[in-house]
Amino acid sequence: MSALDVAEYLRLRLRALRMTTTEAAKRSGISRQTWHKLLRADIGEARLSTLVQVADTLETHPLSMLRIFFNGRELSQAMRLHEDTRFVSSFVGDITFPDNSKVMLGETFEKIWEVENVGTEAWEGWHLVCQYDLASSGLQPVNDNIPIPSTQPGERVRLSVTLRALEKVGIAMSHWKYVNADGELVFPRQAGLYCMVNVTSS
Length: 202
Known about the structure:
The chain is α+β, with helices and mostly antiparallel strands. The protein has helices at 3-17, 21-28, 32-39, 48-57, 62-69, 134-137; strands at 89-94, 101-104, 108-117, 127-130, 139-141, 145-147, 156-165, 170-179, 193-200.
């Protein structure tokens, strides 16, 4: 369990959404005191219902929150948020740089994820697009728009992005989402893919 990683993730998402803790408390129905405790990593055992409410408020998927909270434990499940099963993505695993991997300041590295098309239609003309501002993420993509190979139902595909750690020690994240051939987010309410590393100077 990693309350510190959850706290850093919450700070990044609040900054990315330009949301104050007061606004987050109002939207979630969770007290500001609880939010401040989460942001200080002051809660040893957070209730599952609280994490789900927090994830919804921060427009991310609860599985991502749980994955971070349980220190990178894999939860390889299809993220089905509606009954339309034409397009469904399942996270298979981190091929390189799993959560909390160490990278050096200024280091350029390749992050690779493996995902599976568990829907009923092929992914054609899709791209993976970076979602975070540089100031919030701490990681700079060499290319913020990555083509996804044509992927048939039942097929797995490895997606790679090249990132550079900016001059900031600590947890850094880069967040990516699927975009279709028309430039529309395919899973607007899903967490997408993320890279979370620990940037160090030694």
